[in-house]
Amino acid sequence: xxxxxxxxxxxxxxxxxxxxxxxxxxxxxxxxxxxxxxxxxxxxxxxxxxxxxxxxxxxxxxxxxxxxxxxxxxxxxxxxxxxxxxxxxxxxxxxxxxxxxxxxxxxxxxxxxxxxxxxxxxxxxxxxxxxxxxxxxxxxxxxxxxxxxxxxxxxxxxxxxxxxxxxxxxxxxxxxxxxxxxxxxxxxxxxxxxxxxxxxxxxxxxxxxxxxxxxxxxxxxxxxxxxxxxxxxxxxxxxxxxxxxxxxxxxxxxxxxxxxxxxxxxxxxxxxxxxxxxxxxxxxxxxxxxxxxxxxxxxxxxxxxxxxxxxxxxxxxxxxxxxxxxxxxxxxxxxxxxxxxxxxxxxxxxxxxxxxxxxxxxxxxxxxxxxxxxxxxxxx
Amino acid sequence: xxxxxxxxxxxxxxxxxxxxxxxxxxxxxxxxxxxxxxxxxxxxxxxxxxxxxxxxxxxxxxxxxxxxxxxxxxxxxxxxxxxxxxxxxxxxxxxxxxxxxxxxxxxxxxxxxxxxxxxxxxxxxxxxxxxxxxxxxxxxxxxxxxxxxxxxxxxxxxxxxxxxxxxxxxxxxxxxxxxxxxxxxxxxxxxxxxxxxxxxxxxxxxxxxxxxxxxxxxxxxxxxxxxxxxxxxxxxxxxxxxxxxxxxxxxxxxxxxxxxxxxxxxxxxxxxxxxxxxxxxxxxxxxxxxxxxxxxxxxxxxxxxxxxxxxxxxxxxxxxxxxxxxxxxxxxxxxxxx
Amino acid sequence: xxxxxxxxxxxxxxxxxxxxxxxxxxxxxxxxxxxxxxxxxxxxxxxxxxxxxxxxxxxxxxxxxxxxxxxxxxxxxxxxxxxxxxxxxxxxxxxxxxxxxxxxxxxxxxxxxxxxxxxxxxxxxxxxxxxxxxxxxxxxxxxxxxxxxxxxxxxxxxxxxxxxxxxxxxxxxxxxxxxxxxxxxxxxxxxxxxxxxxxxxxxxxxxxxxxxxxxxxxxxxxxxxxxxxxxxxxxxxxxxxxxxxxxxxxxxxxxxxxxxxxxxxxxxxxxxxxxxxxxxxxxxxxxxxxxxxxxxxxxxxxxxxxxxxxxxxxxxxxxxxxxxxxxxxxxxxxxxxxxxxxxxxxxxxxxxxxxxxxxxxxxxxxxxxxxxxxxxxxxxxxxxxxxxxxxxxxxxxxxxxxxxxxxxxxxxxxxxxxxxxxxxxxxxxxxxxxxxxxxxxxxxxxxxxxxxxxxxxxxxxxxxxxxxxxxxxxxxxxxxxxxxxxxxxxxxxxxxxxxxxxxxxxxxxxxxxxxxxxxxxxxxxxxxxxxxxxxxxxxxxxxxxxxxxxxxxxxxxxxxxxxxxxxxxxxxxxx
Lengths: 380, 338, 575
Known about the structure:
The complex is a heterotrimer. By secondary structure, chain A is an all-alpha fold. Chain A contains 15 helices and no strands. In chain A, α11 runs antiparallel to α13 (283-319). By secondary structure, chain B is mostly helical. Chain B has 13 helices and no strands. Chain B has helices spanning 3-11, 16-44, 60-69, 76-88, 102-137, 142-155, 159-171, 194-232, 235-242, 247-264, 266-285, 290-299, 303-331. Chains in contact: A-B, A-C, B-C. The interface between B and C is large, with 54 and 63 residues.
């Protein structure tokens, strides 16, 4: 079986042009990574140029938000440059490194072949960058009202997404809302995954009555009308972002626990696990070092898809008035505020909804790609 | 193999009846637990039903009198026992917000929710399976790519946002269609004949069903596509083609039937989800169903109503899980060819 | 009579068109803030003129249509709130009470435009020379819808139930002065009373209930009795047909209603639907599914009035919005601070955002809905500089330069609570920005109603400030807001009271000449304005949106439903 030359040697090595336009050699060699690198380079430089006055303002005033954004911009530009120029300094005569054969590298290449997954990843990357750079990108202060002349303006050159009922620029609010929605989604999933994995692993490994009890508890949570819990909890402990995160996390772990339990059950009887047990390792060590790492694959996929679901759930909560409270902007509560005027001022509810769709789409694309890449059975 | 045998083969127990009985028994402590939990949560939450009448005109004595009438001045365990006793005898009490028996209130709202959820289920599985099959048959061609994008787009959409967009479009660009955007019946519904009434409700169902069903239909389509693709690659399909059967027969009679089986097992899973998803859609479209009822009830601390509705919801989830498990047994390929 | 009316129509049309051109609608993008203030004023005047012209032109043009051709059709009305129950002894919400008093039942008397009592079920009444007994003479041609005649026993029964402490009637104070009843004969009933002003107001809003149906029902069983929600039997201009819960109430005209009281209403049927969603109600109005929205959203009023098939009118409702300060807590113990905070709020903008032209800044507890209202009594201006000066004087200075004032180390920071309504979210955001400008940090907190109410009504008053609106009765009795001897009552959130105010409010219940009442009202306003236990935000105007084919809808402080028997539909609009 002939070995295919690893990608790095296939041409597109960084040349002198890459100092100014990193990735151009790869692009000319018709590699996707070149296109991405050059594209990001130009976009980031464009942002830095067109928003230069804003950057100067931010640097002049103290404010963690703005400083972090400028720092992120600098770091990103540097990283793109380095990525586009990687391999430049390797001496010509040295051996080329072998292309990785580890499962991770194999999975990575399978992922790359999925164009849709790569698109999803690109969308996610864009979203992340936008979130980091929001203070520089947002044309207006999201809380700045204009009660006399700026209320309910339709989308125009001055306000790309129009303004809301208090005259606040909608584009800026959607940008800042992205952070809230993403952070909530991410943290909620972290809680759900942690809790679900722990319970599922214990249930699957211990078996017997522990398993039975834990699965009964899962059933209880699943049969519980979530709304009662949500509304009451939100009423007793006043609505706030930490509370929403906890509540979303606590209502999302059940699927993960079943998944992990199933995986643990199937892995439990394998030889390496039996060997570990024979060696006298305690259950914690067996679970932690032997079983769980092999069980993580579907969990990662579930986590990625779960973030999308958490974002949708936060939007629904905010629409019901139980989520993020104004004046903090979150996509869900912007849609809620525009719901009453959907006919008069359609832009208020439409744009945050589109933002949600695009974001959740990218998480789904990446999740699907991961699932296909990490699960050998799904290779076509 | 009958369904009874399949169930026994997969889950154990001498007969189907015994298995169902076992499940019913297991469900009882679950229901008791849920209902007690809800009781505690509701009563420990701040506020009481009189908070709805927040108006300086109303003297505190009147509100106190109302609390006494509702039995809220009793200690918690006394209230619980009274409630349990009433529940067991089938008396669900009177709604504090509607002054009507809870049984009537729920009896009016439940069929409306079932109508909406049921129709949505039809859309979800009908459209989902159809689209998924088309995608599988036309794999890698333009249709597949377009539909993949479309299903992904819909799958990522918040249902209530879709509802709002539908209202927007139906009220402006597509207003000539005359699709109603609110409620379940139009004004002169009671004056219509049976056909008229049917058409009236059907018209009102269109937008909420689309909003509720489309996202899940996309999910089913994705799943169906995967299943169909697997089936198409099987040997017996190749055999059928080799026998000279038309492509149409091959797909419709052999591939589709076998691909549908695992997809149908999703049905049980979707049942409880539909009741939750229906809440937000019911709010958006002012659909007079259980979701809106529960939501308003919780905010107004209408204890009898919320307790009965939660109990009902839990029962429906238990039944849904049971149906799902029965369907799994039905479609379990390990038992297929015995 | 035709040519004078034609001339009048022409004149009105000219006025109408002139008013139309008087200014661009909301959303004009030119002009500085100062210009826009006077523009707003001009706009308001123009809008008002336009509205009145439309209503007048409307009624003039249709005088010509003969009475007899007005009969027929089904009128469909929509509102945000449902009619919960038609049992007056247990209902607490406005829609129910309005339907009871005007649609389904008869009341003993009814209110005229100035809230003077007019004959209704009682065709006349006499007051004894000593003033302590009042005798009502009832009509003999009013029947319950099941055929039984309405008698004095029904009136006596109604009163007994209403004042019974075991019956949860929501406003027993209406009948504070009514002490005993005596049935003299089938159509004569006599009450023993104490003197007070607006003595008969309670009878104008409380429906008379049938003794032959509810006589045996014990008070505790009243709330759940099917009479209220399933099978009400009334005596009024409309009969109950059916109710589909969560959807609609259906009534039909009562052909036996006495001619003297207006006779059979014009409409054959009346349908009331609850549509909680404004956008949905607007869409239904445009498509003709409904004919009238009784509490339309001001935000959509402009768009609705642009539709030539619709008419939007409004009237001052006895409702206002306010921020209540907890005067038991710092910094609100100091009235100067409260005054400063009021001066710092741009209430004009708040009204604009929340109500558009359908509201006005409130100067105090008495608004345009009350006949003692004096437009010359001005609200505090929007004066942030005065606010800052006042705060400095009270000891609140920004010592550490962080933008928030402190007094001996304690920052001027507090929480503002409200229920999660869109309007309150907007108000609190604006208030937050205004107060930040003068150095006060406001933290808006939305709480669902059932959680918020115990916080503000419990004796420990767990709040700093909260935002709320409520409706008052037109015969104003605000003693339940301020009485010093009940300052710990649940509804006296602020904890402020003033002995002179008590005396003033008490006197207001007993004087009957208008001059004295006006003077007392001014004194009430002055005392409250000095102390600012509330910051009165704005008065609300109720917005009515109707199809142009629906005529005869009255719009005054008595409420929309007071004119229900006069509503009729153009023939083309009948379904």
